[in-house]
UniProtKB/TrEMBL annotation:
Organism: Odynerus spinipes
Annotated signal peptide: none
The protein's name: ABC transporter domain-containing protein
UniProt similarity note: Belongs to the ABC transporter superfamily. ABCG family. Eye pigment precursor importer (TC 3.A.1.204) subfamily.
Domain ABC transporter: 59-305
Keywords annotated in UniProt: ATP-binding, Membrane, Nucleotide-binding, Transmembrane, Transmembrane helix, Transport
Membrane-spanning ranges: 383-405, 417-440, 461-485, 497-519, 526-548, 608-632
PROSITE patterns with a match to the protein in the record: ABC_TRANSPORTER_1, ABC_TRANSPORTER_2
Length: 637
């Protein structure tokens, strides 16, 4: 056993954490790891970290196959491609398991399938403590977490804020804030992140980000942790710290920890308890790490002296020693077919034990509030975007106002005003749409990950996002409209101003709703041109072409074009509502009477309220479609 030194032990620290820090620096994990959960120190850990005891989980998987459809563009037919070919295995509570293999072997695919992240295309059975796991099992998702390769914590919030927010979301308000705060502090201390409490997440090093990812998920105290390549991108010291940490979590807290890993160093490799090796979608070794070399020797492949066993395994798997994957797989099968099947676990360790249920997560409104707070905090800290967007709208408002100055009240400026109104609508439709079309796909990654790990539901997330984006876009549009409306000399009458603002902002927000839909359903590369194409297509109606001139096959577009509805309403707002004759400084002004202009444009009978309802209706419909598309994406696994 190791001891605490006065140099790294402050009175507030638990003796265990100090030892962990000390041990980590020496890479002497084996000394720290306590093999039995009943060991006195495991009690200390339990008490210090106040984790309610979670049920231990043993995972068995049988004959797992994973197929994808591959399209052959030449023959225009789809072919099934099998990526995992009936692999089986068992991961026990308290074990740190490495899934290893050459690149493209199927490691991530296996991890995804075992975590329940990918279900579509999978066949076979996953047994949790002897019971078959049902697809989309909520209980399973409460029991496990999946930490992906890329750290996706928001850069603009501090470690303390990220942890506190995650604690409120995951643990809800049935337990006290003091308890959650203690949990947060203990976890940060346990993972060596106490000194980063006030550091912005974006400023953490790669290793610290990985540890923060683990800390965030440990808040809900999962029994099973899946990690996809937790050491990728880390230096050797951070790799050792990361794996040492995982080993402690497995050994001392009896969690089942499974991670994929690429060619670890010999030292790192030895830290794992168990190894699951795959090559070409077949299992080529499963069992304790220390038994790998004897196993390979038993089938006639001897590891050269002073060779890293992990490197040796990969070399064998890619055929450098002249043995095929089939033979390796057969050797594994022959060993395991002699083993007796695992017995189901005793009742106390079944995850269905209701007395060990984790606390319920935050309620709907609380989730909305917490997510809104997070978004607001990020926005407050990174206000450049906000300011630039507002300034751009202000600047373009001044430019447009200057270019079309006075066109709003002059009879010979009606056509110029017509173009100003069209240009204004096009501008706020574009800015509303494109800002979210491009930003949303980045959000998708965070949403997918946090939603899968049960941080929150889709609806609170979507609502909190709208509560930020809608006022922001409305403010930008209002800034532009107010400046340009005044400079271009539009009528200063309350009902016209209100109608003008309402219609324009509604059109901008509906365009934003379209942006969300396109961003959520199409890849960024396609979204960048689909967005503008749709905006231009809808803007043609009512401006470049009248209803009478529209070919009958396209007339339905005229009816559903929110742009057309918005544009006609703006014209009517400015020139309708019994407006008096316009100012005419010349001998003849064709459009002195505003009604004449409306008649020639074929919009005398425009109903602004009906158009507003249409615009808002389309906006609401697009949001509903976006939410449905997101729901399908998040749940189609
Ligand atoms: N959805 C899919 N469609 C087609 N092929 C796929 C799909 N998913 C995975 N594959 C293929 O399956 C194989 C295994 O992929 P996987 O990502 O699991 O490998 P890996 O062992 O994790 O590789 P690496 O170590 O390079 O990340 C690869 O050849 C990959 O191209």
């Amino acid at each position: 056993m190791t001891t605490c030194t006065s140099t790294n032990c402050s009175p507030s620290r638990s003796s265990l954490s100090c030892c962990q820090v000390e041990n980590t620096s020496h890479d002497n994990v084996r000394d720290v790891a306590i093999s039995s959960p009943l060991h006195p120190q495991s009690y200390i850990l339990q008490e210090k970290h106040s984790f309610p005891r979670r049920p231990e989980v043993d995972l068995i998987f049988k004959d797992i196959r994973f197929r994808v459809k591959q399209w052959n563009l030449r023959n225009l037919c789809a072919k099934d491609k099998e990526i995992l070919h009936g692999v089986s295995g068992e991961f026990k509570a308290g074990e740190l398991v490495a899934i290893m293999g050459p690149s493209g072997a199927g490691k991530s695919t296996l991890l995804n399938v075992l975590a329940g992240y990918t279900l579509h295309g999978m066949s076979g059975e996953v047994l949790v403590n002897g019971k078959v796991r049902v697809p989309h099992s909520e209980r399973w998702r409460r029991t496990s977490c999946y930490i992906q390769q890329d750290s996706l914590v928001r850069g603009r919030i501090t470690v303390g804020e990220a942890m506190t927010l995650a604690a409120h979301l995951k643990l809800g308000y049935t337990i006290s804030s003091a308890y959650k705060h203690t949990q947060v502090l203990n976890l940060l201390e346990m993972l060596g992140l106490s000194h980063c409490y006030d550091t912005l997440c974006g400023r953490l090093s790669g290793g610290q980000k990985k540890r923060l990812d683990v800390a965030l998920e440990l808040l809900s105290n999962p029994s099973v942790l899946f990690l996809d390549e937790p050491t990728t991108g880390l230096d050797s010291m951070s790799c050792s710290q990361c794996i040492a940490l995982l080993k402690r979590l497995a050994r001392m807290e009896r969690r089942t920890i499974v991670c994929t890993i690429h060619q670890p160093s010999a030292l790192l490799f030895e830290m794992f308890d168990s190894l699951y090796a795959v090559a070409n979608g077949y299992c080529v070794y499963r069992g304790p790490v220390h038994a790998l070399i004897p196993h390979l020797a038993s089938i006639g492949i001897n590891c050269p002296a002073y060779h890293n066993p992990a490197d040796f395994l990969i070399e064998v798997a890619i055929g450098e020693y002249g043995i095929s994957v089939d033979k390796l797989a057969t050797a594994v099968d022959s060993i395991w077919s002699e083993e007796t099947p695992a017995k189901p676990q005793p009742i106390e360790t079944q995850i269905e034990d209701s007395t060990k249920e984790p606390p319920p997560p935050a309620g709907f409104l609380t989730q909305c509030y917490l997510l809104y707070k997070r978004q607001l905090l990020c926005l407050k800290r990174d206000y450049t975007l906000l300011v630039v967007r507002l300034l751009c709208h202000l600047l373009i408002g001044i430019i447009f106002g200057y270019l079309y100055m006075g066109s709003g009240y002059r009879a010979n400026g009606v056509l110029a005003n017509y173009v100003y109104l069209y240009g204004s609508l096009l501008l706020i439709v574009y800015t509303g749409k494109m800002a979210v079309t491009l930003a949303f796909p980045l959000e998708m990654k965070i949403l997918t990950r946090e939603h899968f790990n049960r941080w929150y539901k889709l609806a609170p997330y979507y609502i909190s996002m709208l509560l930020i984006e809608i006022p922001f876009q409305a403010a930008c549009a209002a800034t532009y409209l107010a400046v340009s409306y005044w400079l271009t000399g539009q009528p200063i009458e309350a009902h016209r101003i209100i109608s003008f603002m309402a219609v324009s902002i509604a059109a901008s927000l509906t365009a934003q709703a379209w942006g969300f839909f396109i961003g959520a359903t199409t890849p960024v590369k396609i979204a960048v041109f689909v967005g503008p194409i749709l905006a231009v297509l809808f803007s043609v109606f009512g401006f470049c072409i009248t209803y009478i001139d529209t070919p009958s096959g396209f007339r339905w577009l005229f009816h559903i074009s929110y742009f057309r509805a918005g544009f006609h309403s703006l014209l009517y707002t400015v020139y309708g509502f019994d407006r008096m004759d316009l100012k005419c400084d010349e001998f003849y002004c064709h459009y002195k009477k505003p009604t004449k202009f409306l008649k020639e444009m074929n919009i005398s009978d425009t109903n602004v309220i009906n158009n507003l309802v249409l615009i808002v209706g389309i906006g609401v419909l697009m949001h509903l479609l976006t939410a449905s598309a997101l729901w399908c994406k998040l749940n189609r696994r």
